[in-house]
Amino acid sequence: MTRTAAGIPVRGNLPSAAGKEPSDTLRLNKRMADLGLCSRREADDWISKGWVRVNGQVAEMGLQVLPTDRIEVDRQAQGQQEQQVTILLNKPMGYVSGQAEDGHTPAVALINPRTHWREDTSRTRFTPGQLRGIAPCGRLDIDSVGLLVLTQDGRVARQLIGEDSTVDKEYLVRVIYGDVEQDVRSAFPEEQLALLNHGLSLDGQKLKPAKVDWQNPEQLRFVLNEGKKRQIRRMCELVGLKVVGLKRIRIGRITLGNLPVGEWRYLGANEKF
């Protein structure tokens, strides 16, 4: 652990990647993201404000750095991060998770004082500024419901949807099989269930292993480590199932719990994905 000139703790420099020489360089914003200090976009903002030093010198945008270079961040950047919020929303059907499209309302429109869950234990008070730069971490289709995470914090976004994310997501999925709407489990072949767990491909790429099992005769539980567009619905189509209901109930260690539909709460200071 090293400390900046301002006294803010910063993680130690990254070791050289296996098989690479120390002369290999990366853009400073990527190095900072890899260190877990912030997102690339946030790093660019800090660099433009003169809040980042490399080896004691104020960094310029686009700077290439070595694994051994010392990166220091001004205390103002830490203060900015501490004000950023992460929000957990129980998204209803009919809202899109991202930008407004085809006349449909984005889920962020539900974030206001009237829909703030009254049982939220966070001491954070809502202000309109908390909606500035807030973005969803992952998709939840317009016809799907459940846990949606929106954040201003690039570190959270990277953890949940970054290329190297290992955070899993859990879904409850109601299905029918051809004309079978009741006791689908009895009619659905075991070998097809095995394919849902591992063996399917989408967009020409093999899917990562999943955990898929029956919760009741009409409902499957999916646990995924990736999030391709409409992935569960498309996986089900490949084995002859039709999804008639989809609800996300967990992301990492954070569960939907008793959060009412259409309401939201803050991610607590002691909660981690």
UniProtKB/TrEMBL annotation:
Presence of the UniProt keyword ATP-binding in the record: no
Example of a GO biological process term: enzyme-directed rRNA pseudouridine synthesis
Disordered as annotated region, ranges: 1-23
Catalysis: reaction(s): uridine(2604) in 23S rRNA = pseudouridine(2604) in 23S rRNA; uridine(35) in tRNA(Tyr) = pseudouridine(35) in tRNA(Tyr)
Stretches assigned to the RNA-binding S4 domain: 26-82
Protein EC: 5.4.99.21
One MF term in the entry's GO annotations: RNA binding
Name of this protein: Dual-specificity RNA pseudouridine synthase RluF
Entry keywords, A to Z: Isomerase, RNA-binding
Source taxon at top rank: Bacteria
Primary enzyme class: isomerase
This protein's record includes keyword Methyltransferase: no
Gene3D superfamilies assigned: Pseudouridine synthase, RNA-binding S4 domain
Species per Swiss-Prot/TrEMBL record: Diaphorobacter ruginosibacter
